[in-house]
Write a structure and sequence with these properties.
It contains 7 helices and 9 strands, in the order βαβααββααβββαβαβ. By secondary structure, the chain is α/β, with parallel strands linked by helices. A 6-stranded parallel sheet has the order 1-9-8-5-2-3, with helices on one face. A 3-stranded antiparallel sheet has the order 4-7-6. The structure holds 6-phosphogluconic acid.
């Protein structure tokens, strides 16, 4: 794994702008190199502002949406029309506002008997897209996986102390909720799939995240207590975009500060 590329921004707004630029550049490079851009969205409040920026003409026009394929890293087991749905939020903030074909959208299905069935169906959907066997040893390689970080150190829906942390023979699994709201079952990509990505970008803002950021990026983190620490792309790149508040407990020299920070 290459070194962590950690960037600290003045505030959540600056972070959102820089992250939208980052994604636009990734989309351009992926499409130039491989003819498509496979993007995994995350839920949470931090990315929502960035999704809205991506939908604005300056960014939206710079991305070839016909070649962009959109997945989601975790989902609350609620219908997409429920305000707690991660994909529902992404649709309202971004996907309904850009020219992405409906056939390029891969939400996690929640119209099934339970979250375990949903996980199985998503794995089969991924396998069809990537022309592979569901849960096969060779995990699909997404161009970019976006992730948030919970105050408790969780990532996607991989919560401290929950069995989903240890699932390595499946691409997608389910989990009961962690301690943070909303208290609904989840469906989540597993670590092997996340870590197979070409690039992972964490988006983390706010002082409530400072302790978790410090644990996850600190020396020898305990990943079972702070699951974000187990995101270590096997051969891909690991980027962290955090605002000053979220970085406030990190040692001063750990971040590369861009000129506008
Ligand atoms: C979810 C998310 C989750 C989120 C973090 C950070 O479904 O809750 O996907 O993993 O990314 O909890 O969320 P915030 O940015 O809202 O703090």
């Amino acid at each position: 794994m290459s070194a962590v590329d950690l960037r600290v921004f003045a505030d959540a707004e600056t972070l959102a702008h820089a992250s939208a630029d980052f994604i636009t550049a990734r989309a351009r490079d992926s499409i130039a190199q491989r003819g498509r851009f496979t993007l995994v969205l995350t839920g949470g409040s931090t990315p929502e502002r960035m999704y809205r920026l991506l939908a604005e003409p300056a960014h939206a026009a710079a991305i070839d949406w016909s070649r962009t394929v959109v997945f989601v890293g975790d989902e609350r087991f609620v219908p997409e029309s429920d305000s707690r749905s991660n994909f529902g939020m992404a649709r309202r903030a971004l996907l309904d506002r850009v020219a992405v074909p409906a056939s390029n959208l891969y939400p996690i299905p929640t119209d099934c008997t339970g979250p375990a069935a949903a996980a199985e169906r998503y794995s089969a959907k991924l396998a069809r897209f990537f022309n592979s066997e569901p849960d096969g040893a060779l995990a699909p390689v997404f161009d970019l996986v976006l992730l948030g970080l919970g105050e408790d150190g969780h990532v996607a829906s991989l919560f401290p102390g929950k069995p989903a942390l240890h699932v390595t023979d499946r691409w997608v699994t389910w989990s009961p909720p962690g301690t943070l709201p909303p208290p609904v079952d989840r469906v989540t990509l597993t670590f092997p799939l996340i870590n197979a990505a070409r690039a992972v970008l964490f988006l983390v803002a706010g002082d409530k995240k400072a302790a978790a950021v410090c644990q996850v990026l600190g020396p020898s983190p305990d990943w079972q207590r702070f699951p974000g620490a187990n995101v270590r792309p096997t051969s891909g790149a690991l980027h962290w975009h955090v605002d000053k508040a979220a970085a406030s407990m990190l040692p001063p020299a750990s971040a590369q500060r861009p000129p506008d920070a």
